[in-house]
From TrEMBL:
Belongs to the ADP-ribosyl cyclase family. It comes from Rhinolophus ferrumequinum. Its EC number is 2.4.99.20, 3.2.2.6. It comes from the Eukaryota. This is ADP-ribosyl cyclase/cyclic ADP-ribose hydrolase 1. The keyword Acetylation does not apply.
């Protein structure tokens, strides 16, 4: 077995070999870290929760879904009977799903893709 001997350390002898300047720098660094964390927590704690965008206008036209459905039926049954196979209820739902409760500034073509597929029609060459 090895023989370990502990010797007492005098109070005059420092326990670690850091200079006075290094101790001051280390202490200052620790204080700065604590202050930075405290400021960040204070700022984040004091910020209000982000407010969601909310429409404050008059609102939508009353019976809007029924209007869309009626116009689809008028178009497909009266004006363009060759499109009578189109499902106006599916078209109306796809139209509503494309923009309902979405931010109009962030809507994309992909949002309207189901609607475009349901309403696809070919225009004869001699028609405008």
């Amino acid at each position: 077995m090895s023989n370990h001997r502990f010797s007492p350390v005098s109070e005059d002898e420092p326990c670690c070999n850091l200079s006075q300047k290094a101790k001051i720098c280390l202490g200052t660094f620790c204080v700065l870290v604590v202050l930075t964390i405290a400021v960040m927590v204070g700022v984040l704690w004091g910020l209000p929760a982000p407010k969601l965008k909310e429409w404050d206008g008059k609102g939508t036209t009353p019976n809007f879904p029924e209007i869309v459905l009626g116009r689809c039926y008028t178009y497909t049954k009266v004006l363009r009977p060759e499109l009578s196979h189109k499902d106006c209820r599916k078209i109306g739902k796809a139209f509503m799903d494309a923009f309902l409760s979405k931010d109009p500034c962030s809507s994309t073509e992909r949002d309207y893709q189901p609607l475009l597929e349901l309403t696809n029609q070919t225009v004869p060459c001699n028609k405008k």
